[in-house]
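Retro notes (design track)

What went well: tokenization of the new backbones is finally stable.
What didn't: we kept losing track of which sequence belonged to which structure.
Fix going forward: every design gets posted as structure first, then sequence, in one message. First example under the new rule, 135 residues:
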């Protein structure tokens, strides 16, 4: 009986140390972070350089074209990306790690600029309505 208890304890310890296994077809966190970062850069590129110059372009079509290039560069597919995104969204702790990694990729100057914009927006909201009236 004592040997069975030791065996069960050993199996539980080994199983507990196995860590979390990702299902097949899920991008690892580091690759997912890189793909998400490149997609964000693609969005920024489209906004700053394409859509501002040609407003007749279909935003969805142009975004899809650029996203396909991102997927090709990272040797993944739209389906694998969205399956991975759904997987991480169902695990808030893992998703938080992804978003923190994305936040850390921002250049310091961009973080400072965003913080200044947020402080400015916060101070605008704290103004009393009477101060904004013009006669």
């Amino acid at each position: 009986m004592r040997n069975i208890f030791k065996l069960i304890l050993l199996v539980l310890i080994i199983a507990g140390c196995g860590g979390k296994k990702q299902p097949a077809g899920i991008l690892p966190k580091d690759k997912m972070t890189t793909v998400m970062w490149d997609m964000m850069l693609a969005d920024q590129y489209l906004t700053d350089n394409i859509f501002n110059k040609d407003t007749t372009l279909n935003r969805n079509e142009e975004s899809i074209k650029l996203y396909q290039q991102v997927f090709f560069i990272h040797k993944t597919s739209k389906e694998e990306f969205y399956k991975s995104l759904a997987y991480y969204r169902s695990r808030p702790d893992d998703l938080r790690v992804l978003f923190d990694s994305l936040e850390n990729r921002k250049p310091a100057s961009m973080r400072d600029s965003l913080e200044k914009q947020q402080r400015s927006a916060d101070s605008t909201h704290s103004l009393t309505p009477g101060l904004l009236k013009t006669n």
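Added context from the reviewer: The two ends are 90 Å apart (CA to CA).
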